[in-house]
Amino acid sequence: MLFGHHFAAIAGAGPLVGPVLAAQMGYLPGMIWILAGVVLAGAVQDFMVLFVSTRRDGRSLGELVKEEMGPTAGVLALVACFMIMVIILAVLAMIVVKALTHSPWGTYTVAFTIPLAVFMGIYIRYLRPGRIGEVSVIGLVMLVFAIVSGGWVAESATWAPWFDYTGVQLTWILVGYGFIASVLPVWLLLAPRDYLSTFLKIGTIVGLAIGILIMRPTLTMPALTKFIDGTGPVWSGSMFPFLFITIACGAVSGFHALIASGTTPKMLANEGQACFIGYGGMLMESFVAIMALVAACIIDPGVYFAMNSPLAVLAPAGTTDVVASAAQVVSSWGFTITADTLHQIASEVGEQSIISRAGGAPTLAVGMAYILHGSLGGLMDVAFWYHFAILFEALFILTAVDAGTRAARFMLQDLLGVISPGLKKTSSLPANLLATALCVLAWGYFLHQGVVDPLGGINTLWPLFGIANQMLAGMALMLCAVVLFKMKRQRYAWVALLPTSWLADLHPDRRLAEVVQPGYQSGLPGDRQ
Q1: Are 64 and 52 in contact (CB under 8 A)?
Q2: Is 245:91 a contact under the CB 8 Å cutoff?
Q3: For 363-409, what is each residue's pLDDT tens digit?
Q4: Could you give all domains of the chain from N- to C-terminal order, each with its CATH number?
Q5: Angle, in degrees to the nearest 10, between helices 71-100 and 61-69
Q6: Which of 456, 515, 471, 388 is nearest to 95 (CA)?
Q7: Crossing angle for the helix pair 382-419 and 132-155, to the nearest 10 degrees
């Protein structure tokens, strides 16, 4: 049970989206990094941080740094953790926005899970206390109903406009949702939906794995593409270091250190479980990343690039036929595709268009839909499985957004407590509301800038996400090395220092500057030519 809880907490959008975006260079570089990274760095970090936190009464990462490296380092670590968390939450939310923009079916289905979770919380707490089996069956049945009825809503001229939103509108909806979800009691919304999403996550992952074995699909994406030189349209940058930044979760993720410290260690029955939970949980996430890479690489490369390239690249301003323009541009890169094919796939998945659905989530959903549809002998249509996959991804991500916003609130309250001790009290409603509002406005700002970016936001925010995530991993691994030296176990310190040195080499200032390249125009202030 604890393994499932820990896996659900660490497995957010990263292992689903990073490998999909990395596929623009071909399937081989991403596959090698996922397999090598998880064994030598990612799983090592998760296990070691979990062990260290367990030995120190389940203290959080910031508290551990303060205790082991001094108060100044502790405050700096807390500030860094908060800033990194803000960027991570903005990127996670942006993936949801990109997947649901002008998608009444997807928006309705995801929105349906909110009142469903509230009902489940009230049901298990007041109506039928302890009846876990009953509420589980109700929840799963209603999830299927949400997907099916979403198709009816999308086809209705009356209801579809109520769930058809632009990216900016969805941004503010998510900001409002993030605030409310973080201040509501955990039992009312977060706990029941996390419980429900755990079933969906595990069931979908197992089903996708079996589907891949049954279908044995051909990888249509080349092992290496022409964009290995760093000129790709999906994201800009050379293979080193940007491939290793693009695939963070699934290989090594600093976000996991926040879960492996302070949360999971308090639930371990004994210290011996740390290896299975920490190392094993990360191996499971790596398995998810490999399947995401497979799902993306079975799609026609032309479709892949049409879905993930920025609209400004595929259809310059003034273009009347966006689909035809996209087909022509992608074909000019050597990945032949026709406008009819793009129209056909959009029709099959039940969407108005699949052009420039950046963020990776829609691409993964298309791959998953064809695998699940084919492996189940055509049970339900492709559109059902596409929106099932969108729901799966959205719950994956929103679970992390909910938990991350709450964790960021605690970090901010610790920092504000330095200025005014009263703001640190988590029992104070005004302090909680203030800290939550500041958190959601912080990540909401970055989310908005990414959404209005004419190049899709992914070019800027995803590298920032990867860099922030792996800088946090480097911090956590350095902490583990310090603890090993203090324990007089320095002969094992290389286990932490080896991946730390690799992560440090990925992110010196000269490479951080490449995130926003000369002449590149993003939607972020200070980067408009």
Answers
A1: yes
A2: no
A3: 999 999 999 999 988 888 999 999 999 988 888 788 778 878 888 88
A4: 2-102+165-509 (1.20.1740.10)
A5: 160
A6: 456
A7: 110
